[in-house]
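As a warm-up, study this chain.
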Amino acid sequence: MRTAETLSELVSSALAAAQESGSLPPSGDAAVNIEKPQLAEHGDFSTSLPLRLARAMRMSPMKIGEMIAEAIPDNDLLKRVWVAAPGFINLELSDDFLRGQVATILSAGEEFGNVDTGAGQRVQVEFVSVNPTGPLHVGHTRGAVIGSGLANLLEAAGYEVQREYYVNDAGNQMQVFNDTLYARVMQAAGHDEPLPDPAYPGEYLVDLAERLYARHGDALLSRPKAEVIAALAPAALESTLELIRDDLDELGVRYDRWFSEKSLIEDGQFDRAIKFLEARGYLADREGARWFLSTRLGEEKDNVLIRSDKGGPTYFGTDFAYHYDKFLVREFDRVINVWGADHHGHVGRMKAVARALGREPDDLVVIINQIVSFKEGDRAVRFSKRKGVILTVRELLDEVGADACRYIFLSRSPDSQMEFDLDLARRQSADNPVYYVQYAHARIRSIQREAARRDLDYAAGDVSNLRHPMEMELIKTIIRLPDIVHHAATRLEPHHLPHYAYDLAKSLQRFYEECRVVSNDPGDLPVSQARLLLVDAARVALARTLVIMGMTIPERM
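Now compare it with the structure written out below.
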């Protein structure tokens, strides 16, 4: 149950009742937004509805609030309803309702926190999708975590989600990669073959070329360059993709599909997409090239789809065909692309693509994740090949682990620049939020093991024995999860999840400071049983949040 949604329905019904009775005049449609106040004295939830109705009703917001509050019937959900200046309706949950939520949470188990916000909607999330030309650079980690976390979040919110990696196995970058690979293979064979200009740097291609040469020997190298590349390219691509898959798997990132750019050409999808544009009047031939007339859709300039020189599709051309496939062939209701900061200039013309395909611009969402800087102590970490300096995703994972990467990268909005503190991420102490949150779960499990050691059965515990204010506060924090999932999924903001996890860990700490869970006094057994039920409910919520974030759930720390 989403508490905010239930309260919104309650206030909406009260408004309608007050209008039917004549206490309030008609006002037209009015959405009831329920929010959590910043100050505890303003209640557990509040709404500014009276302030928004004041002009239409030509009444004082305070008077409107009083009429709505009076129309809210007595119920088990609320302890208190009151109106505060300049026109807020404040709502406080009842203790009986809160106690009852413990059983609801435990009954839901691993499904707790799931909502039906996106029921019936198919969403594709495409992320990372870097050229398969070597190991993932550390700069790709943020997009990988954001895309993965967002996909998990949308699934928890009821969407049917497909996670996709777009393999750029065609185009100029792969040509440069293959030309460099050829030179490295020839060098491995002892030939004085210069590197092409441009060429891919790095030791990865040197190692790959040596492995390929060892596998094929000199017989292959007597053939023309084009034949050598044709023979080696598939194995080189698969080797690189396997490396990328392994790195992403270590980071806790999985995909439902790896989509080949080359397949768009080979399967005829690119030609069909071009014909679709032509039929809709968005295609023109000029200067020997084929152009997408994006100016007809609000863009400042048109864009080339097929080059005039070699006649092949441009990067944008295959991207258009790819989105033609997403929207019109696979028929996703919404497409979300998670891109790096260097793709910012590509967003506008992709919105034009969505319009050309007959979709609303908002059906295509592009999330740009900003650059991350790293520091170690007071020293900024620069990326280079010097020994001991982090360069790849794998090296970052070896330094701090996947859980730290996922929590820290998820904790900030993608559009904000961030600084990753390596020292803090490694630290095994409460000032490291990753450690603090995971330790909260491990501590619950420790308490439960102690209860088991004492043969303390709490399955039939009575939650009516929960009467301490900190017990109520902990329940209030736990039951926020479904609302957090709904809010974060609606706004495509997974950074709310780590903040909720940290709030829950803090609430648990405050609870422990005031309430002993397993008492040594036999007379306290009923309270101990009730509190064990409560901490088990907290465990459910914390574990579910960690799962959505893609993190591990430690039993011991």
